[in-house]
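Example record used in the benchmark description.
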Amino acid sequence: MDPRAEQFIARAKEALTAVHQSLRNNPAHWRINTSAVKTSIQYVDQSRIMYDPRRIEERVWIITEVQLFASFDPGDGAIRDVNDWCEREWNSALHVDPCNAAILTGLGNLWLSKAQNVLARIHRQERATGHIDDLAADRRAGTADYHEARTILQPAIDFFARAVEIAQSQGRLTGELLVKVESCSTTNEISPS
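Model output (structure tokens):
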């Protein structure tokens, strides 16, 4: 890779590291980092690192950091382009390395993130109605919101399950990954009778 491309990557990684620290220190002010993240994406795209199969670990790190930022979006579409970039890059990385547990975990996290708005809506509705009997709970589980949540969560479950299978076969299974699969699966078990 040419020196200019390496410089782009270095700048992007430096900016994403600073964004990560900023989010850790002050998550409520995530929007102030939007420009830095979008500039980092431009640097990464200009470097063409995402087309280099030998740098898959770097690609995973970059996409993970961008996705961490994107997870702060409350769903108002302010950074839809950032979310779209993450999805496109995860899928591209998966095409290059379909047996990479980190990529599969990243895709699982992406789909889990997509479900957050509908899950929050369900939570608000449940909190507003308080305790209900089993029959009412079964009726609620058949509503459009619950159906939408299950539909969005299924790809997350599938990607996490594949990540677990691959990590286990490679002797690199972590408790963190198992917890994600369990919590995602439990959330998706809400089904109408």
